[in-house]
Structures are given as structure tokens and as C-alpha cells.
Design brief:
The structure is a single chain. By secondary structure, the chain is of the alpha/beta class. It has two domains: about 170 residues, Flavin prenyltransferase-like (Rossmann fold, 3-Layer(aba) Sandwich); about 210 residues, 3-Layer(aba) Sandwich (Rossmann fold), CATH 3.40.50.10300. It contains 13 helices and 19 strands. The strands form five sheets. It has an eight-stranded mixed β-sheet with strand order 12-11-8-13-16-17-18-19, sandwiched between helices. Strands 2-1-3-4-5 form a five-stranded parallel β-sheet, sandwiched between helices. A two-stranded antiparallel ribbon has the order 6-7. Strand 16, helix 12 and strand 17 form a beta-alpha-beta unit. Helix 1 runs parallel beside helix 2 and helix 10 packs parallel to helix 11. The longest helix is centred in the C-terminal third of the chain and has 16 residues. It is globular.
Length: about 400
């Protein structure tokens, strides 16, 4: 199974901020996803982090000087800039933003930023006053106007101990922001994709609930893949273990009825609806208004069916709209998925096996099949959820025509 960023070339520029140490995590995550990373450290960055750390992670020599005595021609700034699929500057200080905006080329990184034609993504990190200064904001505006991208910053505790805007966003969010820029194909540009993710919690009383084992990993993977193809993505998520990617609209819900109240109206304007959430089929008819106390006797709960959100959306599906469902099954996988496909008027259903150590809720891999009105379209004996998400988007692009 090839990782999602297999052989993508990323130049990771690290500048002089206390957040420089986070570049190691960024590099590590990119490497896990299959990217090939060329680390670049400015002189100021080397006061915070050593080149050896990034070299160990990326298995490439770090570039630290414009005129370093390297024999390898591949380290020349023009060559590295030409082969890059993305320039990611994290952390990005006010200094590098000013240089990039003004076209100053006085070190390797600023020179390469002029030479590259790859997408450039800045993850700013600086003092609040520096970030809000009119000069910095003007430089950011200039760079945005030229087509550069920005991830963050966010508000939080800064290195000075003060609270304010200027904190570099989490490395996971930076990777999420980078992902769409590393994909050349934008088949879903202009399309609106609505995804349900996570599980649901049906209250027993004010303390307890009935839930399931959904982690939200599949929904997250689909959202990342849809963003990478250029879609405008909205995710309606129940409780989940994993964070959702950067760059989409998120609506948080708790119960199945909460989710239906949000999703059904939103589906009317969506080009694609993907029901990846593990929504409870039943809820407690009369949840307790206070915590149930132990009595020594059995506790009897009456369960009633929740509304069938996907069937309601399917019944109102308009021409050209694509509706995708998931069938998490422990037996009779294809038969159950095919029945669900017809009942809910779906265009495609992902039949996925659950309940085994390598496939199901909380796992990173899954055994699955794509089932359409004509039968099984593709089978995957074992595949990562990220790779399955990419193949699902391929199917959706085909259905959209």
C-alpha cells in the first residue's frame, strides 16, 4: 500500500522562531505519508534547532548556507526549487514574510522562494504585536495576492508567556493544509461535498449514553481526500477520536437526531453527500432526567428507532447529485450492502467489514468493497483508510461525470 504522498517533493523551510522544534514533527509526519523532504534552515533557525535532527528524519542533508561547500549538484537552489512540489515554511517569521514579499534574496531559502514555481505555504509564528503590525499584514496581503497560501497562526500562549494571536498552528493542521497543495488534480473544484463522520451518543440519563466504537478515522480520511481534489467540504461530526483536517467547515453534533436535523437541510445544496458516520439505529425512548442510581434490580430501557437520515436524503436526491453510504457489517457483507443501497436510493455504498483486529472501528486499515447498482465495482482485501478514501473520491469523480 503506497502512502498518500508517495514521492512528493517538499522543501521544508525552517526560520528563526522558538516553534522551530516543531519542524521535526512536521518532517516526521510528511515522511510517514511518503513525501521526500529537503530541510532548509536559516541561520536564525539554527539557533533553535540543529540540522542533524532534521537530517535524521528526512535522510537528506539539510541546506544551511547559500554557498555551502556541497559537492552534490542536487543541493543547488535552482535544482531543489525546480523539483519541489511544495515549499512549506514552518515556522515562518515576520522576517521571511518580509523578504518574500519584497523579493529579497540574501540566503538560500529566500533565493529559492524566488526561483520556485511550486505552491508556497507559510505557517506564521511570531509575537502578537509583530503579527498585527501593518507592515506584516501588508506583506501577508501581498503574498496572498501573488498566490501564496497561509495556515494559521492561531491564538494561544506565546513564548513570551502572553496570550494572543501569533502561535503556530499544530503540525497536524499544517500537514492538512499542505495536502491539497500537493495534489495536481482538482476534479472537485467548485463542488460542495458534505460528509458525516464519527459516531453518535444516545443518552440513557444525564451521565450515561449508548454509543459505538467509531473513531472518525474514515470520515477524516475522506475529508482530506476531498479537500485535496479541490472540493468545498463540510463535515458534520459526532463524537470522534481524531481531529478533522484544516480548511473545512465543521458542525459538531451528539445524537442521531441532532445529526439528521443538520445534515438533511445541508444535503439539499451539496453536490456529493457521503454518509460515513456510524449513526445509532436506536435511541432510548425516555432518557432519565437525572442519574440512574443502582437499585439491585435490572434496569429496563425501551429503545425506539432513530430517523433514517440517509434514506430521507436519498428519497429527495436531485438529478446529478451523488449519494454515498457505508455498510459496516460482520457477516453477509455484499448482500447487506446491496440491500441498503437499494433501500436508501444510493449511487454507491462502501461495504466494510468490522469486528476484526485489522478492519473496522478504530483501525488504520479496512477490508472493503465498492458496491453500485450493477454489483461489486472494486474489492479491497486490506487497504489503508487513507488509500480507500482516495479511491472512493475517484469513484465519485466518475459518477459526477
Amino acid at each position: 500500500m503506497r502512502p498518500i504522498l508517495w514521492n512528493k517533493e517538499v522543501v521544508l523551510g525552517v526560520t528563526g522562531s522558538i516553534a522551530a522544534y516543531k519542524a521535526c514533527e512536521i518532517a516526521s509526519r510528511l515522511a510517514e505519508l511518503g513525501a521526500r523532504i529537503t530541510p532548509v534552515l536559516t541561520r536564525a533557525a539554527q539557533q533553535f534547532i540543529g540540522a542533524a535532527s532534521l537530517e535524521a528524519i528526512t535522510r537528506r542533508r539539510a541546506i544551511t548556507e547559500l554557498f555551502a561547500p556541497y559537492q552534490n549538484e542536487e543541493l543547488e537552489h535552482i535544482a531543489a526549487a525546480a523539483r519541489a512540489d511544495l515549499f512549506l515554511i514552518a515556522p515562518a517569521t515576520a522576517d521571511i514574510l518580509a523578504k518574500a514579499a519584497l523579493g529579497i534574496a540574501d540566503d538560500w531559502l529566500s533565493t529559492a522562494l524566488l526561483a520556485t514555481r511550486a505552491p508556497i505555504l507559510f505557517a506564521p509564528a511570531m509575537n502578537s504585536n509583530m503579527y498585527s503590525h501593518p507592515a506584516t499584514q501588508a506583506n501577508i496581503d501581498t503574498l496572498r495576492m501573488r498566490g501564496c497560501f497561509f495556515a494559521g497562526p492561531e491564538s494561544g500562549r506565546l513564548a513570551s508567556g502572553a496570550e494572543g494571536i501569533g502561535r503556530m498552528i499544530d503540525p497536524v493542521k499544517i500537514i492538512d493544509a499542505a495536502m491539497p497543495l500537493l495534489w495536481a488534480r482538482k476534479e472537485l473544484a467548485g463542488r460542495r461535498v458534505l460528509i458525516t463522520s464519527g459516531g453518535s451518543r444516545e443518552p440513557i440519563d444525564l451521565v450515561r449514553f449508548i454509543g459505538n466504537r467509531s473513531s472518525g478515522k474514515m470520515g477524516r480520511a475522506i475529508a482530506v481526500a476531498a479537500l485535496a481534489r479541490g472540493a468545498a467540504v463540510t463535515v458534520v461530526s459526532g463524537p470522534a477520536e481524531v481531529p478533522l483536517p484544516y480548511g473545512l467547515k465543521v458542525v459538531r453534533v451528539e445524537t442521531a437526531r441532532d445529526m439528521a436535523e443538520v445534515v438533511v437541510p445541508l444535503a439539499q445544496d451539496a453536490d456529493v453527500v457521503i454518509g460515513a458516520a456510524a449513526v445509532a439505529d436506536y435511541r432510548v425512548e425516555h432518557p432519565g432526567a437525572k442519574k440512574h442510581k443502582r437499585t439491585g434490580r435490572p434496569l429496563t430501557l425501551t429503545l425506539v428507532e432513530n430517523p433514517d437520515m440517509l434514506a430521507e436524503i436519498g428519497a429527495a436526491k436531485r438529478p446529478g447529485q451523488v449519494l454515498v453510504g457505508f455498510a459496516a457489517e460482520t457477516q453477509d457483507l455484499i448482500e447487506n450492502a446491496s440491500a441498503k443501497l437499494a433501500e436508501k436510493h444510493l449511487d454507491l455504498i462502501v461495504a466494510n467489514e468490522v469486528g476484526t483486529p485489522e478492519s473496522g472501528f478504530g483501525t488504520d486499515t479496512v477490508k472493503a468493497s465498492f458496491v453500485g447498482p450493477s454489483g461489486v465495482l472494486e474489492e479491497f482485501p486490506l487497504i489503508s483508510k487513507e488509500e480507500l478514501a482516495g479511491k472512493l473520491i475517484d469513484q465519485i469523480v466518475s459518477l459526477l461525470g
